[in-house]
Amino acid sequence: MSHHVEGVEIADIEAFILNEYIPAKPLDSNLQVDFTIRKQAKSEKCGQRRCGDILKFPFAQTTRTLTAASIKQSKVLVDADKATETKRVVEITLESDDFDYEPGDTIGVLPSNAPAVVEQLLDRLGLIDQADTICQIKLSLKCAKKNAKLPAHIPDSTCPREIFTNCLALNGVLQKQFLSALAGYTSVAKERSFLACLSSKQATEHYNSLILERGLRFMDILELCGSCQPPLAFLVEHLPRLLPRPYSIANSPLETGTQELRIIYSVQSPKAGVTTSMLEAKCQQQEQPAKVFIYPRLTNTFRYTEEDLCKNQILIAVGTGLAPFLGFLAHKEHHQKQQKQPVKGETWLYVGAKTPQAVLKRNKLLAWEQASVLQRLRMCHSRVESPTYVQQLLQDDAEELVKLLLKPDTVLYVCADGAKISTSIASGVGLCLQKVLHLDETEATQQLKELRQQAKYREDLWL
Ligand SMILES: Cc1cc2nc3c(=O)[nH]c(=O)nc-3n(C[C@H](O)[C@H](O)[C@H](O)COP(=O)(O)OP(=O)(O)OC[C@H]3O[C@@H](n4cnc5c(N)ncnc54)[C@H](O)[C@@H]3O)c2cc1C
Fold first, then answer.
1. Which member of 33, 215, 229, 306 has the greatest number of CB atoms within 10 A?
2. Which parts of the sequence belong to the FAD-binding FR-type domain (predicted)?
3. pLDDT tens, 283-323?
């Protein structure tokens, strides 16, 4: 039989089975799931929010807990465009309990796996009848591992639907030992060999191509190997935790009050991620207002506060990376209008986007330039007839840029949705330093390092 999984045609999994291979050591199983006869009510299914204080949320401000925020509004800022590979970008306004924030701060959003995917998984594992039955995860009576632990991200009393919806990541990269264990739960010989071989050192090339490059995930493997039937207890122990995702706040609290905040997300097509798919579905759901669970993350130096009003900023943004700067600029505009505090600092903004239409809130940026919130606005586009990149804009302004950067009160902020872009921008700034200060490459790299140490060069990395 030929399978077509995630746009990948795998004519026959047999083609990936080597003659000789040694499977990786399979992960062992230390847990068991005990079912009760009671069904879990829908209102009880709160996932990781029910796990108590032992469960930590990454970078959470300890004094604050999770908040249910209503999606008050959603707005498409950029339409997807296949020809230029432009992603759809959406802005949502969230309403929640008061929480203090400054422009540039980030929130954690709790994702959930799509109901249709969960249903498909429950069905595939033969768990439909028990999907909502309350169960408890325990250490197995046969558990031989001394330091075996119960996973902290699964509530004490739960049900399979809650586990798969709120607690476990279904699209993580599968490790070789996990694949090897899956082979042990597979009854058809060909499928068993395929999984065992894929886990072996000898088949690393196949592992790299299928798992790392083509991106086959757990659900795809189950589809390819119809007789693979891992027990719930094994998955609870070894599938990774479904982790919150960070998003930058894209407005100023002076615009909206602290009970509201906005975030902007871009949707990868056709393989949208877990959180972005969830947000898309929530924005379209009938029953309104839809709610998402969020928490304030620890703050760092990537923010714009009253103290910065008299400082200079050089802002460099690519794509959705403009989001936090929209907050910076709105904040400055509000202070300028209120005139309670002197606003002496200069703000320069460099923006890169695929096309002019893909620049977030382009008209607003132009208006800020007109109103002298921005002293300099430069935009460039990479998917137009003569493409230009941000680094080039920096080169064009090198003399004045370096002069401004070296003033004691100037901070340069970079935000791009990709580590590679941030590295190219750093090289671009390095080239400006070389050219203007007559440095060689090593000296410029050293100077850049010092600027980072002095917190004059700040990056928000969206990895
Ligand atoms: C400090 C910080 C701030 C951030 N701020 C923002 C922000 O303001 N706006 C924003 O949009 N993002 C921001 N991000 C990134 C954001 O946190 C998420 O990583 C992003 O939205 C994708 O999350 P997801 O859960 O939808 O995707 P995930 O499910 O985590 O998937 C990650 C990527 O893998 C791809 N993928 C999914 N399934 C597969 C598969 N089977 N094979 C191959 N690839 C696959 C998806 O398309 C997706 O692009 C920020 C990140 C950080 C660290």
1. 33
2. 61-305
3. 998 887 899 999 999 999 999 999 999 999 999 999 999 99
